[in-house]
Amino acid sequence: MHVNRASLHSLEVADRFETDDSFEILLINHGEPTHVHLHLDDALSELASIEAPNHHVERESERRVRVTVHSHGSTFGKLKIATSYGAETRYVDVDIDEPIETEEPVQVDESLSKPQPRSDGRDDTTGVNAVPWPLLALGLVAVALALAVAAWVGGTAAWLGAFVVLAAVAVATALAVGG
Is residue 124 over pLDDT 60? Predict the structure, then answer.
């Protein structure tokens, strides 16, 4: 859309625009700085929105304004473009069509049909996971703490609790190492 090309506040716009997706309006100012007001009528506003209605376009510059289509559907409406507080106003017929979905075949590269090397943490020679040293260290700390508490508190219940901690750490370590 050309602004200020023929005269101050003049507007030159297309009569009609068709789309099936979001688009940008390019405001090209050929003269003095000016404000441009953009407005979608009610029919277009149901499917689309403009990022902001009022735009200041500097002298001899361009400005892009995004119109976002939010939902699928078809509608017809008018985009209003105004300068000089509405003294110069133009309307563009906008036709938003339902997007056409095409079923394109998916190209599969032959390299995807070949097995890929595994990188799951297993030792390739034995098939067993590498020893998780931080987990093993944490287990040893838990067992040492349980034994220290059992020795300090004394009694059958304390020793039974220490045995449960020892058994849990042993099972967790076996699961982590054996996979």
Answer: no
